[in-house]
Amino acid sequence: MTDFPSPSGRSKSAKSLAFALFRPVLFAVGVIAFALGGLVLTHRSNPEIAALPPPPPALAPQPTAPAPAIVLADPEPAPPLSSADFKGFEMKPADQAVEAEPPASDRYELTLRLERGDTVEKMLADIDVPEADRKQISEKLQELLKKKKLAPGETIELLMQTMPDQPDAPRVLSLSVRPQPEREYIVTRKDDGSYDAEEKIYKVSPRIVRVEGERNGSLQQSGMRAGAPSAAMIEFIRAMSFDVDFQRELKEGQKFTVLLEQLVTSDGRVTHPGRLLAGELRLLKRTVTVIRFRPQGGAEGFYSPQGESVVRSFLRTPMDASKITSRFGMREHPILGFSALHAGVDFAAPPGTPILAAGAGKVAMAGPNGGYGNYVKLQHTNDVATAYAHMSRIGPGIKPGIAVRQGQVIGFVGSTGMSTGPHLHYEFHRGGKQVNPLAQKFAMRAAVGGKDATRFQALARQYLTQMKNAPVVADRSPPNRRSLPPRKSPRATERINACLARARVGSA
Ligand SMILES: [Zn+2]
Predict the structure, then answer these.
(1) How far is the CA of 326 from the centre of ligand 1 (A)?
(2) Is the separation of the CB atoms in 440 and 314 below 8 Å?
(3) How far from 404 is each of 314, 363, 395, 407, CA to CA, in Å?
(4) What is the pLDDT of residue 105?
(5) Is this structure's pTM higher than 0.85?
């Protein structure tokens, strides 16, 4: 950080001299920027905005802002361009260009956005950069980008300078674009007026953070509002759904915590908003916790802190949304009129609702089957089979002998056979006998065992602790504020474009 020049006047360079000259301007600019900073803060409290990836911190600009040094977003030694400088420029163009009263030499930062159908060269032409310069710059940039194209909406950071003798032909001292957080392309003007290009790669490393929230509306939305990425929330909900009955157990105001692994560049930009490591949902009577783990030689999955896989061998219900209308057991038969064993479970659902294979297996039967109507039976193991009845039609490609995956569509809800209305009659067969499906599936979960057990226990302990004390992502304070490059709001860019347009009209 550059210090305010001491009053003893050791102005070693033209830079600090220029700074001294513009001190009153900088002060005014700082005051305005402070007010704008306040606006930006208010803007951020909007929940829609809060759900977006971490925005840059609102730097409280001070009148003694850093001297306008040439900063090429080099994270280690120098802070990048501060928003105070930027906002300052925003207010200046009127006297700068329109009044045609050029200051001795002025440097300013500019953030522009590529529009649809725009090119860097066109954009530079719009701000009156001389043709020779903009040709060189765009050539140099293209060399770096090779065949890659910059997307519309891409942000271009510029450090500009106007010379006293050429007030209408600003120079580009540097241009930088960062299409990915870990890659920055910089074109810099050399003393002889030619341009150099360099690609800067930022190191990316993981960082563990937690998001705490309260359920208010959907769990996914609540998580996103609290700062978790949507993909992590979906994974969290899916991991919970094997165990939690969302309709009955989930209430407003219930608290949850998710532990995320983010990827962050060396200068604090988040390249991955966070992979779910663990999560905790505090229900009315119990707390459900899931832990991500990869057993040796196995696939990654979620486990309870006791080391049981959350995934059950069979789906809780072989349909997406359904209501149980008749359970397993003795009942008065709705059509036959006498008491008999209801050998399965009935799920009510609109006709045509897809029916999913409750587990992986092989199709044993598929076709009309008397009172069962259109019927599919899946053999999962020698011992275990499931059956699905009254389908309106059988799923595509479902034929005896075909292998199915868990969750594959095997048919559609209907009312064929002896049925009073559209529903799925679902049976679970064990050793050739029908048993209660709802009582079966809970016994069937994989557990962490053998060599994995110790490793899992250590990891589970670590995650449980981190869910209490890892840095909270919601407070959005990056570890090093200084190292975060400024990101301007689109509105600011629009305003600046408007200013520039006015300035051009004025000078024409
Ligand atoms: Zn039934």
Answers:
(1) 7
(2) yes
(3) 13, 7, 11, 8
(4) 64
(5) no
